[in-house]
Design brief:
Layout (H helix, E strand, L loop, with lengths): L7 H7 L38 H14 L3 E5 L2 H12 L5 E4 L5 H14 L2 E4 L5 H7 L4 E7 L11 H11 L2 E5 L4 H4 L9 E5 L13 E5 L1 H14 L5 H11 L2 H21 L3 E5 L9 H7 L6 E6 L5 H6 L5 E2 L9 E3 L11 H6 L6 E5 L5 H20 L1
Parallel strand pairs: 2-3, 2-4, 4-5, 5-6, 10-11
Antiparallel strand pairs: 1-7, 6-7, 8-9, 9-12, 11-12
Helix pairs in contact: 2-9, 3-8
The structure holds pyridoxal-5'-phosphate (PLP).
Pyridoxal-5'-phosphate binds next to helix 3 and helix 4.
Length: 388
């Protein structure tokens, strides 16, 4: 079976299964051993070496989905990011990072890098020219995130990949928001792709995990550092992640379809001031998104009109949950000004376009009609409470 020819749902269901030779069970057995007999071959299996049977086999599914030779599963998205960065950066090196970045990644860079003597520049914007302008003679890595959180800006993946190639700089991407179902950055020339598997790969808000995928050569380099840092995932959770990923394409496609409809519905709504969704024609990078994504994903943001307070609206929702995390099968909303971006001042938030009315919407798999009525009833309730 050639993996390239397999359809997405077949990869999700079958690639990386461990055959149960002993009992012929339908699903992969879980190998929880932390101790394995030495083989004749030079392979020492140990959970922290990222090479237990469950870790090794699930990595094949992720590699198949991201079109890479190899992959590794980590204990969290941040373990994936930190191990990946530290594998390619050392004292005296410099990294260029996109200005709009997942908060944890940005904290890791700002709080830890000076201890290692690693220099960094956050870009001014997210255009290729902004990345080029930030490059220094000692730049070793460029890291991007697209679509970005929470305004869903789109970075030109091929443009940044070519920039890196032309200067001999490694390019990495946080592909969490798109998931491998909606975007395959390796095909656009990016060197290394990572995921917070806590989000779409897990998909049920019950697993904390991460993943990195690339060539065998790059993954070997990451492995050499990761085995020292020790951010591997327990095999019980690896197994849960395998089970979740069987429905990855089904889930993400259903979520994406809902997001299309909800973005269109919100865009036409009289009480909604603005919608941020790359699938909308009025999104500034709609054409770019169309050229580099297979579909536009299931994350969107919107602003209610000024006289409907976003916080009061959130409190009136019955079905959609106010929640920090994202990408589960259930729809969730949050206010970035109150959560992910609460440490910034009002001025800083205004500068990057995050208003107090901005609501980030992680669209789930529920029936569209029910999500729509939940939003409508919450708007009506907020209006009547405000003006009563
Ligand atoms: C959640 C998230 C992370 C961090 O992942 P954890 O699994 O929470 O460590 C990184 N990047 C993005 C875009 C995320 O949404």
């Amino acid at each position: 079976m050639s993996k390239k020819k397999l359809g997405l749902n077949t990869i999700c269901t079958h690639v990386g299964e461990i055959k149960d030779e002993q009992f012929k069970g339908a699903v992969s057995p879980i190998y929880v051993s932390t101790s394995y007999e030495f083989d004749d071959v030079d392979l020492k299996r140990y959970p922290r070496y990222f090479n237990t049977p469950n870790q090794e086999f699930l990595a094949k599914k992720i590699a198949a989905l991201e079109h890479t030779e190899a992959a590794m599963i980590f204990g969290s998205g941040m373990a994936a990011i930190s191990h990946m960065f530290l594998a390619f950066l050392q004292n005296g090196d410099h990294i260029v990072v996109q200005n709009t970045l997942y908060g944890g990644t940005s904290n890791f860079i700002r709080e830890e890098f000076h201890k290692y003597g690693i220099e960094y520049t956050f870009t001014e914007g997210y255009k290729v020219s902004d990345f080029e302008a930030a490059i220094q003679p000692n730049t070793k890595l460029i890291h991007i995130e697209t679509p970005s959180n929470p305004l869903l800006t789109i970075t030109d993946v091929k443009g940044v990949a070519n920039l890196g190639r032309s200067k001999g700089i490694i390019t990495t991407i946080d592909n969490t928001f798109a998931s491998p179902i909606n975007q395959n950055p390796i095909d656009l020339g990016i060197d290394i792709v990572m995921h917070s598997a806590t989000k779409y790969l897990g998909g049920h808000s019950d697993i904390l995990a991460g993943a990195v995928a690339s060539t065998q050569e790059h993954m070997d380099r990451i492995w050499n550092v990761s085995k020292n840092l020790g951010g591997s995932l327990s095999d019980m959770t690896v197994w849960m992640l395998e089970r979740s990923m069987k429905t990855l394409a089904l889930r993400v496609k259903a979520q994406t379809k809902n997001a299309h409809k909800l973005a269109a519905f919100l865009d036409k709504h009289d009480d909604v001031a603005k919608v941020y969704y790359p699938g909308l024609k009025n999104h500034p990078e709609h054409e770019l998104a169309k050229s580099q994504m297979k579909d536009f994903g299931a994350m969107l943001s919107f602003e209610l009109v000024d006289d409907i307070d976003a916080m009061s609206f959130m409190k009136q929702l019955h079905l959609i949950k106010p929640s920090m995390s994202l990408a589960g099968v259930e729809s969730t909303m949050l206010l970035p000004a109150e959560t992910s971006h609460s440490l910034l001042t009002q001025d800083q938030r205004d500068d990057i376009g995050i208003s107090n009315q901005l609501i980030r919407f992680s669209v789930g798999i529920e029936t569209f009609r029910d999500l729509k009525s939940d939003i409508n009833q919450a708007i009506t309730k907020t209006k009547t409470t405000t003006f009563a």
